[in-house]
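Structure representation.

___
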Amino acid sequence: MNRAGILTLVIVIASMFRLGAQVTVQGVVTDSAKIPIPFATITAVFLDKKIIAAFAFTAENGHYKLNIPVSKSDSLLISASSIGFRKVEKSFVLEKEKSIYLLDFQLSTEKFNLPTLTIKADIPDKVVRKDTTTFKIKYYVDSTERVLEDVLKKLPGMNVKDDGSIEYKGKPIERILVEGDDVFNTNNKIPSKNLHADLIEEVQVIDRYSSNPLLKNIENSERQILNLTFKKDRKTAFFGSVNAGGGFTNRYEANTNLISFLGKTKIFALGGVNNVGNDLGNGGINQDKLINRYNNPDYYDPSVEAAILLPTPRLFAPNLSERRINVNQANLLSINFLTRPSEKWTIKAIGLFSKDRILQRQDNLTQYLLGNTQFSVKEIAQTTLKPSIANFHLENKIPLSKNANLTLVNEYKNELSSAIGTNILNEKNISQILNNHSIHWRNLLNLTLRVSDSTAVVVEGAYIRNYRPQELALIPKENYISLINQPNLNFTGLNQDANVATEYGGVVVRLVKAWRQSHKINLSFGGSIRYDSTTTAIFTENDNVKQLFNDSNYLNRVKFRTQDLFTTASYNIDINDLTIGGKLSLIQRHDLLTDVITDTNNFSKNWLYATPRLNVKWKWNAYNSISGTYAYNARFYDLDDVLGQYIFRDFRNLKRNIVTPYRINSHTFSSLYRFDYSAKKT
């Protein structure tokens, strides 16, 4: 290697050695009182390069140590800083052959204002306060929901059944309120199947609900309801929305909401049409006959209706669910109006109009092989239903004084329906046609007096009239002639008519008392009377002319009267996490059955019996509870049972056969353990 190469190698090696050299800067950081400052930041910066050379934090005793790689021409800026103190900087030039530098810092305090700090907390998706559970809907939806029912299905603990009824934690939901107002009555299907999902802000489940403000905190209520809170931008003087869609084979569906929040007045107009099999809840305003009348004593029933003697003709048992064999054309319009002339005075009016055409069809082809013989059975079964309803409801809650109110309810329902059942078995046609008409009047009264802070008296009354004529046509006669045992009678068709007129009146007086918020007692006294007048007859038909089949064996005229006197006592006590309740009813019932044709009393009997009930519930924490119930019940016959086989059912004999009335006694015990992991209280 020549001399120039050796010199270059020496310079490179020397430079590399110098680049690997470092110096140490160390010291202590104290405040003005010479107290060490821990966790202060020490930073070293090359002044000529303007880059950070090293940094460190002081120990608990205030000491620090920096190891800094340097070159001959390096100059350093060392700074010390800590929150609440002024920053101090010191600079120096590195000396030749010196590798350790001692550098202490003394920091003085500094006052300064912190910038504004905003803390935002996430609002829980579910809040439980006493008897109210509130769900924030935005945490459960994903924009695929169309109506309220779709939202409810996603809430934990909520169950929407196939028939449209709603339960929360296994307990039925009695009503759906909007912003605290009972706009829709007991037909939960109207809002759940028609109210658009994007209107809802919150869903509240309210347990132990009392619709009567004068009974608040003293009534032992077991009712459970939903209360809907709307989004603020939807609570306007007028708001409307429409959902619509179409598909192949002329399928369509449309749903509209017209809503008005105008001062103390709420107006809802909900409508829908579809032919894709969706139920719009068009069974009437009070079609769900709730279900469990927790607060009404035994045998006072304001939901009485006339018996349906002739059932819907169905000549086949579906192999598939009704949802899959239905083809319908449903039409619904529900107008709900509620206003408050004063703080405690409420007027509510509801009009419901619905019409539907439901087609259920099923085709079956069954092949049989017996030895070498093969044959097939072809069956086409179809049922067509055409129900229509006009329902009007007027409710007036009047404050008589500070401690008294009066509620009046008047309701009218007119229902028309026709049903055609057809069965073609190996090209042999069997048909049944049923026409049904029902006119229903219902009048209710409720007078409540708050006697003291812990006592109230309630008087309830009901008067109901319902007339239900039905006509069933059986075609052709060859398939039904054996029913009347007249093979030589000349007719082309056979009809059966049934007319039922029901009249009901009832009154009950309740004494409701509570003390110390944990003891509640309910005493009831009352009575009711019900009349059912029934006529069933067979008619033959020739050339569309009906003629009474004048045979007393096939003619039935029955009057049925039931009278009840009852007294009921219930008691409920809460002891910390334990709830014990009991109920005892004593009933005297008299039944009188008269056969008008023979002018004889077929049956007259007095019944005197008691029905006890006991329930216990223990909830030892927010997540776990267990309950048990024992009840003794008595079930009586109804009008359909009395007439026995005389009413046409599935090709049975039509001859008169009045069954002796009966009573069935039953003992029931049930228990339930519940684990609610989602429970959250705030």
